[in-house]
Amino acid sequence: MAKGKKKGGRRHDAAFKSLYAFSLMAWDLMEAVLPLALFEELDFDTLERLPTEWFGPSLQRRLGDAVWRVRRRGGGSLILLVEFQRKPDRLMPLRAGTYVSLMLEDLAGRDELDPGGRLPLVRPVVLYNGLRPWRGPVSLADLSLDSGADWPGLTLVDMGRAKVEDLPNGNAVTLQIEIEQGALAHDPKGVLGRLSNCLGGPARREVRVAFVDWIQESLGPELLKVPNLKDRLTEIVELGEFQDMKSLMLKSMQDYWQEQGFERSMAQAAEWRLELAQADERARLCRMVRRKFGRRAAERLVVLIRGVTDPERLEEVGDWIIDCGSEAEFLARAERAGDR
C-alpha cells in the first residue's frame, strides 16, 4: 500500500474525499467513532453534506475535506468534520479548531445554527493512514503548558493500527480499515465478500465504484500481487448484491448435482433462474427511482422491496414511479405498501 501512496498521493487523496462524499460512509464513520448513546440519537434521514470552503477574517480561503450534519432526535444537530491525513501534523488540533470556528461562523452568517441560535455539537475526526504511527497531539491541551485545562480535542483514527475487533461489524469504514491493514493480501475472499454484502444493491453502485477506486489508488502496484483481485473488484462494482447470491447459487447447484442427480437439479435451477429474474426486476426499479427521485429514495426502496417476488406488486411500484411527482409522494406510497 505504501508504494501506491508515495507515487499517487494526490489521486489517493481525491479517491478518499470522493468516497466520503457518500452518506453511507459518513453514517458508518459516525457509528465507528461516536459513543453508542449519541449515535442512537441521530436521524439518518436528515443526514446532509455541508460546504467545506470557508473564509477567515482577512478572506483567507480554507478548505476542509468532508463535513456532514445530522439532526438529533432529542433536539439540535451533530456535525462531523472529517480530515484525511497521510502525514503526522503536530498542529492538527489547532487546524481542526480553526475549521470548526470558521464553519460555525459560516453557519451563523447563513442563519443555519440550531433552533434558538444554539451551536450544534461538532466532532472533528482525523482519518490517518500514514506509514508511521501517529504520535502527535490530538488535543489543544497537548500543545499547551497547561495540559490540565479543558481544551477541545479531536478523534484520531489511525487506520493502519486501529483494532478491527473493536469496530462495528457490517460497517464500510471497518472494511476500509481492514484493507488498510492488508487484509486483502491474506483474506481476499472474506474481505471482498463482506464488501459485496455491505455495499450491495443497485442504489449503492456509485459508492461501490468510489470504494473500488480508493482500493486501487491505495494498493497501487500491490494490487497485482493478489490473484484475480482486479477482476473480482470489477465483479463487485457490476453485480453488487447479486454477485454473492449467484456464487452461492452456483455452489448449491454443484452440491445438488452430486447429491440428488442431474434431473432434479435442473428443476431447481429453473427456480433459481426465476429468482434471479425477480432480483433483476427489483434492481431495475431501484435504478429508475434513483434517476427520478434520487439516492435516498432508491436506498429506501431497496429495503422495502427486498424479497418481494409478486409480479403484481413489482408492477405496482413501477406505476408509482411514473405517477408520483415527488420523492415524498413516492416514499409515502411505498411505505404504506411496505406495511401491508
> If strands are numbered along the chain, what order do they take across the biggest sheet?
1-4-5-6-7
Structural class: alpha/beta
What does the radius of gyration come to? Answer: 23 Å
Work out the strand percent.
5-15%
- Report the average pLDDT across residues: 80
Which percent range fits the helix content? 55-70%
SSE string, helices as H and strands as E = HHHHEEEEEHEEHHHHHHHHHH
Instruction: Enumerate the spans where pLDDT stays under 50 for 5 or more consecutive residues.
Output: 1-7, 239-257
- Count of helical regions: 15
Oligomerization? single chain
The beta-strand count equals 7
What does this molecule look like?
- It is built from 15 helices and seven strands.
- The protein has helices at 2-7, 9-19, 23-33, 36-39, 92-109, 172-180, 183-186, 188-198, 205-219, 229-239, 241-260, 262-293, 295-304, 311-323, 327-338, and strands spanning 48-49, 53-55, 61-63, 66-71, 77-85, 121-128, 155-158.
- The strands form two sheets. It has a five-stranded mixed beta sheet with strand order 1-4-5-6-7, sandwiched between helices.
- Helices cover 55% and strands 10% of the residues.
- It has 340 residues and is of the alpha/beta class.
- The N and C termini lie far apart (50 Å).
